[in-house]
Amino acid sequence: MNKKNILDKWIEGYSRRIANVTSRRSFITRLGTVMVGMAGIPLLPVARAAGGDKPMDADPGDPKSCDYWRYCAIDGYLCSCCGGSVTACPPGTQTSSITWIGTCRNPADNKDYIISYNDCCGSAACARCFCHSNQGDTPTYMPFRSNDINWCLGEAYNCSTAVILGVATS
Amino acid sequence: MNKKNILDKWIEGYSRRIANVTSRRSFITRLGTVMVGMAGIPLLPVARAAGGDKPMDADPGDPKSCDYWRYCAIDGYLCSCCGGSVTACPPGTQTSSITWIGTCRNPADNKDYIISYNDCCGSAACARCFCHSNQGDTPTYMPFRSNDINWCLGEAYNCSTAVILGVATS
Amino acid sequence: MMKFLNIQTNRRCLTAALLLLFPLLCSAELKPDPMHQVLTLPDKPHPHWVWVADISAASYFPGKAYLMDADKADMLGMITMGYGLSPIALPADGSAVYTLERHYERTSRGKVTDVVGIYNGVTLQLEKEIIIPAKKISAVPYLSNVGLSDDDRFLLIYNFTPAQSISVVDMHKREFVKEISTPGCGLVLPSGNRRFLMLCSDSSILDVTFSDDLEQVTQKRGKKLFQSNDDFLTEKPVRYGDEWLFVSKSSFIYPVNVSSDKISVGDRWSLTTEKERTDNWRIGGQQHLAIHHQNGQLFALFHQGGPESHKDPGDQVWVYDVASKKKTKEIKLKNIASAIQVSQDDNPLLFSLFLVYPTLDIHDASSGEFVRSINEVGSTPMLLQTPVLK
Amino acid sequence: MMKFLNIQTNRRCLTAALLLLFPLLCSAELKPDPMHQVLTLPDKPHPHWVWVADISAASYFPGKAYLMDADKADMLGMITMGYGLSPIALPADGSAVYTLERHYERTSRGKVTDVVGIYNGVTLQLEKEIIIPAKKISAVPYLSNVGLSDDDRFLLIYNFTPAQSISVVDMHKREFVKEISTPGCGLVLPSGNRRFLMLCSDSSILDVTFSDDLEQVTQKRGKKLFQSNDDFLTEKPVRYGDEWLFVSKSSFIYPVNVSSDKISVGDRWSLTTEKERTDNWRIGGQQHLAIHHQNGQLFALFHQGGPESHKDPGDQVWVYDVASKKKTKEIKLKNIASAIQVSQDDNPLLFSLFLVYPTLDIHDASSGEFVRSINEVGSTPMLLQTPVLK
Question: Which residues does A63 contact at the CB level (< 8 Å), separation at least 6?
Fold first, then answer.
């Protein structure tokens, strides 16, 4: 009987980090409390194939895996596993108007990228590919790097994307 | 890590019956489509200890266990595990105004009892002690012995009790 | 304290305003991604898509419908549907997904509102809600609790309050039309453009026809199909052309033909041999029949168990040629299952799942070989529905 | 078709009408049970009760609060609370349970309504709903997102839209009073009858006092508590008498005294020795501090992990004497935990759970011995709250 379910996935994610007692290098770039706000921008529906594209050499890894480099500060269900992509929301959801951000190192170019974790909203949780990483995560009273907040705010949460905003110089 | 959860309980219940390929004796007493209706009867709040009482010799077994004899045609979460008892709803819920019934043999006196499976309503499911037995269960188009129906009807389902209505002569 | 920044989509560099706050390098190897994208589905459903409906049994809500791509082992999208779970309805042109939803004013309490949801078939965005009488059956979901007329115009909804009736919704006009009282009879089995059958508690069939405006409704009650509750028909029949194939608790098929004005009940035939019955093989589970229309194949979910095990999951799917009433194959499932479904193409897939595990199993419906599993499909999935392809 | 029968409660035999339908024997050994009973709780909460709040993470709703009896390994009741999850609030007299609930018009979509629910402390039935501004923070639930004034009169609710504010609800008058704007500061930490603290994103403390009618509100912003985000204070402080004990990511305690008009920040002290820090022992989890008020003991949830593991679960609970700032015990948990709580009696119990398993573990808080586990407490429980016993 295949018993691999969401709970096991959670455990796996936690266990990996529990086992890894040596600290990973912190890639935090301090940004203060800047909020990247985009309220009022209309949705851009795109066909599925286009949204799923991703240059593989410069952007290595599997967007359906919690190990993918862009997910270093994510907390939620991966839209890549939910009918969306690493940058796009699944059909039937809406993008959140504001987001939280993280700073993740791309192993391909060894540069730190500012990642905007745009939540997808308006539906119950997708409950696939739970991923919880906390690099640079701050408490909820320092909100804009806090992954504990439902950035759908007044709406229900479905999944999270990981959109590149740009490169952060050190 | 203790991984015993609701899913495992469900599996246990099913597995027991899957393993048991010999048919258990059917205790069905044919009642046709009679509905035991009690709409309009006020709730009777009772203190917890009183509600939990049950004569043990004449009524053997553990009301928190799916093996308890009264549960021969139940489908749902046992109120005995949810803050109620075998005959009473948990605090914070309301009793359903109508019910489905089953006929179960009491091993103490070897008599068949008519059991009314009164659902408790108005809250999300309790999700404890799932129990699914189908002695005498009928399809939903023969509703009054069908345990597939949410007998809270217009309300949310919390758990199920097993109330003795009386003894059925064969 | 907080600064809101407007960021242009599809931009190559962040704006100058943003540069003042972030130390950004425009020569980055990876370009900024476009923002605020929402994916759409292809214009037409693919035959290897399957909708998996989840009842979320830890609370019994929300009902969720997951659209899965069996070939790519991927999820395509989902719809959240309120309290409990009813099947969805899929018009053949793929333009929409119809849902049947119950909502409470306060999530799990307060005023009840039942609605039909019309979701765009390509965007899965809600296009319209049609409020209907708050009477839909609240139960373990069966496909026979809701159905579309053969021409996809009327959505037929089985009500149980416990008074029994059918709500009729005109999907062309997108409005509720009428409630038809059907005391003593349950389920709704579309059987033409303006006709449906119901099963009554005395084992007779109710044959209902209606006019476009629902002003004229004719109900004909047939003879009893069986004499004893001991071998009742399950609520899980399948439609095959002009016939509804019912199965009884002890695995007899009762074919009911709706091709003429008067329904005709064919001879019953058994899915099991006498030896198999002695060995306690019987049908079981919550969705235990499926039809491949073009191949004329009936798929039935079997297990070994006692006479009261009619809802227990199965570990084998037996395949029958409906015309000859012969078993042609036994498929041993990778995992036990409570629901099965088959895709409607030339390379059919057999879908199966067991409601206590959120795993969708896929077998080759012809060879019976296991193909793959897709994990994490909800929490307690119950129903499998494939696109209608006409 | 259907017959409704009135059945008297507490009757010894069924009525004659019923006898006509059922072949019943009045001489049955077991008497008919009373019908339509609903249990109540005892008048007063027991110190070994614990509320377990479940966020139902497979959908992120409904939030459910389970009341468990640790001694009897039994469930006493539950409350369903709508979308997401906020902590409950427990007035010391045990007369009520206050909830903070979010409801959508259509279960998961549509108009949002936030309410404070007042549930009777003995029946757990909803007595009243108070509609409040639909602004409550939607987040991983922390106890510091809602709180009662020390005299239990005012319920204080942290809003995040992302504008930050506090909603004040008068629980005596049972009405919403006012929203206090608190830009840049989050959480709500009751610190007297008409006073609360907040933590601001620049690491300063906001000290807010208010009059009964909320006409007068005074806000004082303190100095920064720490200089770097590298060792921020977590959102999970505990109140101990006149002090709030905050803990930093690297396990330093920052005591903040609220006994006088001006808050005073005491010297920070470390929960770990240098050796323990070298061995990567650090605080973690979603609810990682607990206080036994009478014994003056602080319980802290520890694990070994990297500097970014501040939300990872722990496998040990370390016990400190707050007065002497010394560790007095290490408790090795039966199972890893993301939340801990301690009962407030002379024989204290240590409660713990890990959000991915619905199991409540109970240890003897004095000896550290494992006592028992209680299974099936929701699906993804997150918070532990014990009755306030005054």
Answer: A54, A70, A78, A80, A85, A86, A162
- Report domain extents, chain B: 3-43, 52-167
| C328-365: pLDDT as tens digits | 999 999 999 999 999 999 999 999 999 999 999 999 99
Q: What is the CATH number of the domain that holds D346?
A: 2.130.10.10
Q: Percent of chain C having pLDDT more than 70?
A: 92
Domain ranges, residue C344: 228-390
CA distances from D319 to C25, D58, D114, D370 (A): 49, 34, 38, 15
Q: How many residues belong to chain C?
A: 390
Q: Which residues have CB under 8 Å from A15's CB, separation 6+?
A: none
Q: Do C1 and D162 touch (CB under 8 A)?
A: no
C337 lies in a domain? yes
- Cα of D235 vs its chain's centroid, Å: 13
- Residue pointed to by tokens 């219940």: B13
Q: How far apart are CA A14 and CA D348, in angstroms?
A: 29
Indicate the SS3 state at residue D18.
Answer: helix
**Domain spanning A52-167: which superfamily?**
Methylamine/Aralkylamine dehydrogenase light chain (2.60.30.10)
Question: Which pLDDT does position B169 carry in this prediction?
Answer: 73
| Mean pLDDT for the stretch of residues C73-102 | 97
> Can you tell me which residue has the tokens 């037929």?
C156
User: How high is the ipTM of this complex?
Assistant: 0.90
pTM attached to this predicted model: 0.90
Smallest CA–CA distance from B6 into chain A, residue: A7
Residue D104 forms contact with C (CB below 8 Å) = yes
B37 and chain D in contact, CB less than 8 A: yes
Contacts across the B-C interface (CB distance below 8 Å): 139
In this complex, is the C-beta atom of A19 within 8 Å of any C-beta atom belonging to chain C?
no
pLDDT score at A170: 62
Give yes or no for A17 touching D (CB within 8 A): yes
How confident is the prediction for chain C on average, in pLDDT? 92
DSSP class of C145: G
C16 — pLDDT class (breaks 50, 70, 90): very low
Q: How confident is the model at residue A32 (pLDDT cuts 50, 70, 90)?
A: very low
Q: Is D145 part of a structural domain of the chain? A: no
Shortest Cα distance, chain D CAs vs residue C356, angstroms: 13
* pLDDT band, residue A44 (cuts 50/70/90): low
Which residues of chain B are under the pLDDT cut of 70?
A: 1-45, 48-56, 170
Shortest CB distance from B45 goes to which of D38, D42, D358? Answer: D38
Contact C144, C160 (CB under 8 A): no
In chain A, the residue whose alpha carbon lies closest to the alpha carbon of B5 is A7
Is-contact D69 C94, C-beta < 8 A?
no
Q: Report the domain count for chain C.
A: 1
Question: Are the CB atoms for B130 and B13 separated by under 8 Å?
Answer: yes
Whether residue D246 is contained in a domain is answered as yes
Catalytic residue (choose from B59, B75, B100, B112): B100
Nearest to C36 among A35, A44, A165 (CB): A44
- The answer to whether A124 contacts C35, with C-beta atoms less than 8 Å apart, is no
Distance CA D62, CA D379 (A): 11
Give a yes or no: residue D165 inside a domain. no
> Could you tell me which of D283, D346, D294 has the C-alpha nearest to residue D317?
D283
Q: Which residues of chain D have pLDDT under 70?
A: 1-28, 228-229, 390
The model's pLDDT over C262-288, given as tens digits with 9 standing for 90+, comes to 999 999 999 999 999 999 999 999 999
A98 near A151, Cβ under 8 Å? yes
- Summarised one tens digit per residue, pLDDT across range C215-265 is 999 999 998 888 766 789 999 999 999 999 999 999 999 999 999 999 999
pLDDT for A48 equals: 61
Residues of chain C in contact with residue D183, where contact means CB-CB under 8 angstroms, are 1-2
A119 is catalytic: yes
